[in-house]
Every structure is written in C-alpha cells, then in structure tokens.
Amino acid sequence: MNNRRALIIVLLVFAVFVSLIFKLTDIQIIKSEELGYYADKQHVKMEVIKADRGMIYDRNNVLLVYNHNDVSFFVDLRMTSKKEKELIADKFSKVTGKSKSFYLSLMNKTGKNICLEKKVSAEKSLLLKELNYSGLFWIEDPTRVYQYSNLASHILGYVSPENTGVSGIDKFFNEYLSGVDGSRTIERDAIGKVISIDEENNIPPASGYNLVLTIDKSYQTILEEELRDGLEEFGGTSAIGIVMDPNNGEVLALANINDFNPNEYWKYSDDDRRDKAITDTYEPGSTFKPITLAALLDQNLITENENIFCENGKYKFKGVNISDTHPNGSLKVKEVIEKSSNIGMTKLSQKIDSESLYKYLRGFGFGNVTSIQLPGEVKGSLKKANDWSPITKAFISFGYEISVTPIQMITAYCALINGGILFQPQIVKKIYQSKTDYLVENKPETIRRVISEKTSGKIRSILKGVVENGTGKNASLEQVEVGGKTGTSQKLIDGNYSKSQYNASFVGFFP
User: What is the pLDDT of residues 494-509, one digit of tens each?
Assistant: First the structure.
C-alpha cells in the first residue's frame, strides 16, 4: 500500500516536472519572440515629443502669438500606495499653493488615471518632475498664448485643446504652424518608473513655421479703439473695420466689435468668434454708387459736369417709388455722388446696358471670394445680367439687390482709387523657419485692371468732393486731404426692409 502511494507521488512529481519543462520550452523557445514582444510593449514605449507650434508676428516683428511649454501631471491610482499619495499631495501643495486635502480628495476617487494638475508652467513643473513615486507621470502639454488678449482675435483665431487651429490664421495655416512631432523610446519598470531613455534612436521634433502678418499692431489697436468708441457713442449691435494699403492689397488692420479673447475662447458665443468682415454680407447702399459711376465714366457714357434732374426728391421708375433723403433739383454728375442721390443714380444707370455693368461689377470682384488667407470667406450675391428684372440695374446702382462682404468692398475701393488695379488682399507677408530661411515671401499680386488710370483719377476727385462738400464732411481732416463715400442701407429682416434698422458704412482714403 505504501509502495503504491509512493509510486503515485513519484508519478505526480514526474508529471509536474515534465509539464514544467514543456511550459518553459514553450515560453523560452516556441513563444519567446511573441512573449518578448508583449513584454517590450508593456515596459518599452514610444513617447511622442510635441513639436513647438510656429509663432506669429505683426509686420514690424512684434510678437503676437507664442507657446508656453506647460506640463500636465497624472497619477495611475492602481500603482500608488496610500503613503505615496500623502507624499505626492504634500509636494504638490507646496509647489502650487493648493491645499494638501485638495490633492488627496482627487486621489481618493475611483478609476485608473486621474489628472492632478493641468498645464503647469515650465518653472513649477521642474520641481514636480523630480518626484519619483509609483504611478506618477507627466506629459508635455503646450499652451498657445495670444499676447494681447482680444487684439486682432478674428485675424489670429484660436486653437483646440489638442493644439490644432480652429479659426483665423491658426486654422488657415495650421499645416505650416503645426510642425512635425518627434519621438523617443522609454523603458519603464513594472510600476511605471522610468529606467532608461534610448537617446540614440530619438527622432527630434521639427518646429512649425513662423508667420509675419501684414497687419500693424499699432493700427490694429487704434482701429479697435475707434470702433468701440463709435458703438458706445452712436449705439448699434456690431462694428467692422478694415484698413488696407490700396497700392498692394496688404491688410494693415481688420477688426470686429464685439470680439473675443482667444486664450479663453470657450467663454464667448459663436457670433462673437465669427469674423463678420469675411463671413457676413450686406447690401452696401450708397457706398456702391462710385462703383457704378466708375463703369459709366470708363465707358465714356457720361462726364462729371453734365446735369441730371433729380425730381426734387421723388421719382417713379417703372412703377417703383424711388426717393432721396434730401430733395434736389438739377445736379451735376459729381454732385449726384456728393449729395448721394438715388434718383440721380437711377437715371445715370440707364445709360449703360446690363451686361456691360455686370462685367464691371465682376471685374471689381463682386459675386466672388477675394481669396484672402482666412477661413470661412463667402462670395456675396450678384445675379447674372440675364436674371435682372427691369428695376435691378437701377437698384444695384445705389447699392441694393446686391450683397457684399466688407473685405470685398474695401478691395474694390482700392482698385477704384489706386489707378484701376485690383489686387489680391494679403494678410501674410512671410512664412519662415529661421530668420535666414524664408519658405514664402509674398509679393503684391495683381488680379486685373478694372478701370483706366484716367477714370480712377476722376473718381478720386469726386470722392474728395464728397468729404469737402457732401455727406462725408465728418471725415474731413485739417492736415490731410481725404476722399470717401457714406452709405446707409435698410436691413432686410424676414424678407422685408426694416424702417428702423440700418447698416451704416463709410469707405475713405487718404491722402
């Protein structure tokens, strides 16, 4: 009986021994590569090294947008003992100024990984990176910083929490600004502590390209201040302003009020964040009259000094009543613009055929995007000439039955007064990675000649008269000659023109 038991025990031991040999053979020989792969995967990981996002400057190399090299800290609760939680909480409390109980309450939650601190500054993170506790780890978490808060917010845009451009320049040039992330191989032990970093096989990140904009910070500041003052003094729901160099199409300033702070974009509405200068259309009203007049003068269909009878302010045209704000009798063509007579423009517009006027309007860029390097631009509305009604030409002549964007309007006016050349609007001057390595250096881009230099000279003279003698007297300056045109249009609300809500605008130039 005892021999049988001994035999059974020997056989069991032998069986265990044989199975152990088979298991070791399976682990060390048959599945060694597969298991080695999983072991490496657990302990050796490829860590992404974030690329620095490119910076943005104004035309005078004033820094507008840069990055903070912040760090976020996390704890894997599965690997952290109660004693280590106490030590971690104590150290974090001393560095950040928050209470120790704050961090302990975070680490007493359930789950795997919890965030102790989000976006810690580089200075403070150096003190926290020294901590070597089980489960405590950190990741690079850069912050996009818009140096002057709300300034030029609709131009600059903002980035998502993942540091990807969402609007403005940051979105349009995201591919250039983003750079290329690098990587490094890190070996950790079973509780997550770093054992070694493979420096030889590191792939360094490539920083994003930097941008130099056409805007001038000083002009931008002045424009925004004036728009705010205007809203406060005269009321209204919003204000838009653009400053452009008519000789090359460079945007020197562009602003929407209300604006937003890109550093805290989530606190603002979609309406505040929308760049209305390129996304919203309006009927321009009387600021459109010089555009129509330029087509007539360019075709030699009228002269500046011929007389037009303006019906003393009331005129019935093809069954539609057209009126002027102030009654006028006979006016010279230039006075039609100075006094801003709708009736005068209606009569003048009949001297040009619809197809010819349409071609001029398309030539000035209406009904098409300007292709400015900002996202979200719309093309406005300009019906083809064969879709015009009997009264369309008259209404277009003084800025109705056509919708435009502010960027279209200023681009067209630049062509109107610069000698007749339509330029591509530009917002970026240079794209570069180093001061000596320019990827792109933009030059003025001519689109087409719209009117003759002689016609442009006549328009400049007429618009100077608007400021000196007409509706634009408030724009007059003592030391500088100014030209321009006022415009007021009724807002179209629910398919009807409002009697109480208007878009008021002015387009001016100097000297």
Answer: 777 777 788 999 999 9
